[in-house]
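FORM 7B: Structural annotation worksheet

SECTION A. Query
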Amino acid sequence: MSTSHRYALILAGGSGQRFWPLSRDSLPKQLLKLFGEKTLLELTIDRLEGLVPKENIIILTNQVQEKAVRALIPDLPAENIVAEPEKRDTAPAIALAVGLIVRRDPNATMMVLPADHLIQDTTEFQKVLSNAMMAAERSNSLVTIGIKPTWPCPSYGYVERGRKAAIPGVDHVRVFEVERFREKPNPELAEFFLSQGTFSWNAGMFIWTIPAIFSEFSRHCPDLADFVSELRTSMDVGATIQHQFGRLPKLSIDYALMEQASHVLNIEATFDWDDVGNWTSVGGYLQKDEAGNCHNCALSEAESQDNLVFAQTNQHVALLGVKDLIVVATKDALLIASKSHAESIKKLVDSLPAKLR
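SECTION B. Predicted structure
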């Protein structure tokens, strides 16, 4: 199948509250420049060059962030950036994109990608995704990309692999049938998953053909299948989205479909992957001094170690007698937090003045 029949949906509507004060409601994680001069959304699009034609990339965001996304990606066709009328979780979001794609190419192959993950090995990423598309096309299955666990993380969902799948022409790829999807486990169960060697982290990357996903929608999510059909024949797509999207069930794609679908396959990624869940994740990509302080700015320290400093401005930061802190400075706010509370920063955001959210 030529690349002209390949489409990519990039889900870019998350809030990213864990990255306050850099992130705001209108400027979530995927729109931040955390790793250089490009945002995570731009890096996601760059990884698709040569794999998916740019005119076949669809970005789904929300109304609060739509203006910023359009400004960031001005060379994408305007109709390829779509703002959800309201948040309805990933199943309705994906159905919306399926409806838009089926209008253009009813037999297309489609991939679903998060906008806020960091993947640096583009060559290996494209190899894995190309193989996944081939597997999806030749098996009429829904394909997931799993991440090999490096530790028993209780914050991710897991995919349990079964036997190796036999797909004609895809013998060179390690494709496995999915036994089941597992919800986020407690630490003890995560340890068990890791010890088995047959579990992958669920990275939220999916590949399928349009006929395959529509067939599964029809079988398990008739409301979503009806929405896709209505979009396909609509004379006014914008009006259909406005009127019908908010009526769809608020469900994740895992719960609504993947856990029930008849034919689901898994390919474990061979590329690097980081979901960049909080500020401590960013620290691993910053310069580090002899005391273990990670920073992106000029830094002086005395008797201070293992801190993370990220300054959006040009000020010089000095640390004295502190350890394991997160210090983030923007033009209008300053965060000082313990690293052990990195996951709780989003709770802090709810108590802030509205102008700082």
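SECTION C. Observations
The chain has a mean pLDDT of 94. The chain is about 30% helix and 25% strand.

SECTION D. Sign-off
Analyst initials: ____
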